[in-house]
Amino acid sequence: MYNFEFEKPGSVADAVAALGAEDAQALGGGQTLIPTLKQRLNQPSKLVSLSGIADMKGVSASGGMITIGGATTHATVAAEASAYPALAATAAHIGDPAVRNRGTIGGSLANNDPAACYPAALLGSGGSVKTDNRDIDADEYFQGMFSTALEEGEIITGVTFNIPEKANYQKFVQPASRFALVGVFVAKHADGVRVAITGASEDGVFRWSEAETALSSNFSAAALDGISVSADGMITDLHGTGAYRAHLLGILTKRAVAAAA
Predict the structure, then answer these.
(1) Into how many domains does the chain fold?
(2) Is the pTM of this model over 0.85?
């Protein structure tokens, strides 16, 4: 490691003020940031921990929506998001117990790893990200691999998910990292179906619009027969080719629909 300042504010206002310092960076659960510090890939002069802000923790549900504080851990989401079982199940299969007990939903969404699970859950749910000064619709929030609509120094204070009529998340796990080689979140809402894919595209999480149209007319796995995604723009690495991921996401979408129905 290297020398840096560390601050643990007790309120959102204090955290925003601390992040106003030159080269300061927010610290959630540290599951991504700490390894990059160790490797000198990231060297902020100040870390501002969000773990001491009580107002950014907890799970609540009302009016067909569930709201989760940005500093809430995956383990807490898994245990307390019973109003949205598909979301609780998604959180329960993130990483391993150590990751789930330290990692936070706000940290995951701020990082927007192209293989993370929460981006698919949020996009599939048609939810929104609440920051210290605005609300950002999920369709506007994700802007590419590791890229979001967050501005410099902006903090995710909470995340809201619309609770659908039916939903399911299917994840093909990359066993070394526990990230999704491909993950598919399918949610049937009153006004239609949303299908969000993670782990597959070079542009990060995305909605599969063709599948959404088919499933909105007929919510069954059979509705997806003959529909596929092009391998162009899909990730190719040592774990699988773009063509493999394109094929796999079709299979997982059918499984998610069958499980949800």
Answers:
(1) 3
(2) yes
